[in-house]
Amino acid sequence: MKTLLQQHRYALGITLRRFLAQPFSSLSNLLVIALALAIPLLGASVLQSVQPVAREVSIQPELTLFLKIDIAPAERTGLADRIKTEHADLIESVRVVPREAALAELKAHPAWSNALAALPDNPLPDAIVATLRDADDIASQADLLARQWGQWPGVERVQLDSAWVQRLEALLRFGRIGLGLLALGVALVVLATVFNTVRMQALSQREEISVARLLGATESFVRRPFLYQGALTCTLAALMAIVLSALALRPLNRALFDLARSYDAEFILRLPPAGWLLTAILAIALLGALSARWSVTRSTHF
Which segments constitute the ABC3 transporter permease C-terminal domain (predicted)? Predict the structure, then answer.
């Protein structure tokens, strides 16, 4: 066990000396990998920050029927009962919003109170809000019901209130798939960069490796410094990518703060949690070690 630890310490020391012997080349490789890793990291930050917004809003579509101004209260109640009766299997709940209640709710909002106070009468119509049950084809069912109810007498217009939430969810799914493909492309960039770096290092030490083998060095003893080189390169690059991403989020958040404040909202882009980042660093380090092993195996058969 002591001998194995000494061998690993020796391999790590060789790796560090190689980094210091070629500082410009080492720093260039680190920057290339770090910039490549920062792109999906920023994408993950955006997705992670947007997802709570989608979770806070119900994705159950609500169909709002805006009724004609001159509709009688009995007709309004009849429409609500008709929805419950004819579509009981699709409807979660139905509630009637009288025009007086809608006006009172708007007047309670400071942004609308002054404007509504100047109006001579109530311009709002009665409304019926129907919440649909969860289903696999809920979007198509909502569209079908909206077209059907829009033709009923006494109905002025039907609005699908949660359609934008569904579009947001679809956009997030698209973003996750795109981020996965981007991460795959970045992984290939990391593989290629580490592979070529280790290959050039192995070829430049060709004679040293040959002498070591003549003296009885094993394959693992020859490969170990290169494995450390690949893992250490990717680990340092991942840490640099986190720092670069954190710096890039500062101007983005300043710009988003002004935009969100205009909508009386708060929205901040944050890096993924520490556990997620640690897992990513370990995965990238493993990827670098595997790439280095592949490269040194192909480059030291001479």
Answer: 181-298
| Residues 131, 51, 39: CA angle, nearest 5 degrees | 150
Over the stretch 229-257, which tens digit does the pLDDT of each residue have? Answer: 888 888 989 999 999 999 998 888 888 77
Provide the β-strand partners of residue 66: 127, 157
Domain span at 8: 2-57+166-299
Q: Are 244 and 40 in contact (CB under 8 A)?
A: no
* Torsion, Cα of 198, 204, 208, 210 (10° steps): 80
The terminus-to-terminus CA distance of the chain in angstroms comes to 31
Q: Is 289 found in the same domain as 141?
A: no
Q: Are 253 and 268 in contact (CB under 8 A)?
A: yes
Distance (Å, rounded) from C-alpha 202 to C-alpha 43? Answer: 35
How many structural domains comprise the chain?
2
Judge if pTM exceeds 0.70. no
Tokens standing for residue 285: 């380090």
Specify the pairing of strand 91-97 against strand 62-67: unpaired
User: Among residues 26, 13, 22, 11, which one has the least CA distance to residue 212?
Assistant: 11
Residue 95: which of 112, 76, 113 has the closest Cα?
Answer: 76
Same domain, 173 and 293: yes
- What is the C-alpha separation between 99 and 68, in angstroms, rounded? 11
Q: Kindly state whether residues 99 and 177 are assigned to the same domain.
A: no
CA distance 235 to 244: 14
Q: What is the dihedral of CA 54, 58, 63, 67, to 10 degrees?
A: -100
Structure token digits, residue 152: 């009923």
Identify whether residues 73 and 218 lie together within a single domain: no
Q: Please, how many CA atoms are within 13 Å of residue 221, restricted to the half-sphere of its CB? A: 16
Q: Write the pLDDT tens digit of every residue in 67-82.
A: 888 888 888 888 888 8
CATH number for the domain that contains residue 143: 3.30.70.3040
